[in-house]
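User: Could you write out the 3D structure of this protein bound to calcium ion? I've included everything you need below.
Assistant: Certainly. Input first, then the structure.
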Amino acid sequence: MGSGTARNLGEHLYRRLALFSTAALLASACGSGSTATPDTLPEPTTTAAAPAGTDGSAVDGGDSSDDATPDTTAPANVAAEPEWATQELILTTIAETDSPVSLVGRSGTGDLYIANKSGTVQRITRTTSKNQPDRFRLESRAVLDISAEVSTGNEQGLLDLVFSSDGRKLYVSYTDAAGANVVDRYNMGSTTVREDSRFQVLRVEQPFPNHNGGGLQFGPDGFLYVGLGDGGRAGDPLGSGQDTSTLLGSILRIDPDGAADGLGYAVPSGNPFVDSTTGEAPEVWLYGVRNPWRFSFDSATDALWIADVGQDQFEEVNRLVDGGRGANLGWNLMEANAPFNGATEPADHVGPYLTYGHDKGRCSVTGGHVYHGRSLPRYEGVYVFGDFCSGEVFGLQDSAGGPVWRKLSLQLGQEQLGSFGVDNDGELYVLNLDGTVNQLGPTPEQVEADRLAAEAARAEAEAEDG
Ligand SMILES: [Ca+2]
């Protein structure tokens, strides 16, 4: 990498993937002769259920410990500990692949689709039955394989995938052989990707191999949002973050169904720079990001959450309740709330909602999703995210007193928290780049306790009625 001090996903990806290679070699050297393949996993296995503390006390949150550094943007929360923060959670491994980097559901089906950084898309089928946990089966044959086309650097490869809302089109985001960011679209068959339907929506050249971003999300407005990093190296040497004439260092908003003007997309008329006569790029929705490693929309409030990987000191989470149209998130004049390299804070800087430092093994934020599933009702409305290097998973919730940030009561086995996924039911998945796809859920004990409590409440209500 260009800088020995640069803190970014790439360096850690490199280190961890190297570890993975070693582990894979060790595994084969053991010669277990096991013929188990990922798609023959008998059933989900529980891999991690580390309780928060032996006394059930609140987990050391992001900032609630006695050695807390004052690196949050809000005053310490003094309200009662939220129920979600003390609930024990487990991760259940539902599939193992080579390098899972994204997971989505597809409307009209219960299936999950994962992107591997190596360049393949695989399907995980789900079988549901009453009063039994869902059963998942990873199909070993990829539904799409562009591994021969993607670049293979630390932060390169297949980076994200998303379906159109009707599930009929698949969009993939990757870096191509030249290192450029590319977004391609495919039509879907019932269970297949129609490879001959491939259409290049977007291609953006990258000056350096790192900070590609690459995230894809459809917004509540139906447009496609694409996250692009500052182009790489350290400190944003080209100034792409603040340069609104480049697509780098920005979240773009495009209409992928409206190819026009020789482009593979149309520019929505409501974009902030659509009428610019001074060179601003009309695709830019907001700017001033360094390497947005995962952004998502809250499906209930439409708020846009962006996790932006920091340079040397601070990771940041941005929460844009109004969607962030035209917002300047600060980089490279600001690293989180701190002026970067002696810069002056721009007047229009939209500061982060939460920042944290590089202590406790933390070094690179991995953005997640606001939870709106069923299996963890206490987590309704909580933003779940993590740190790539420490492997910690965090919860973050808005409150009258500011953000409530807590470390959740689970721990990944290894420090490769590459991404979070969400299915059609709003349930969350934690993707470990070393190969495991894990569903986040309650402990069986919690499920039973909640069932008994609901039963008791019903009985009491009936008794009162009687
Ligand atoms: Ca920022």
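The chain has one domain: 9-465.
User: Perfect, thank you.
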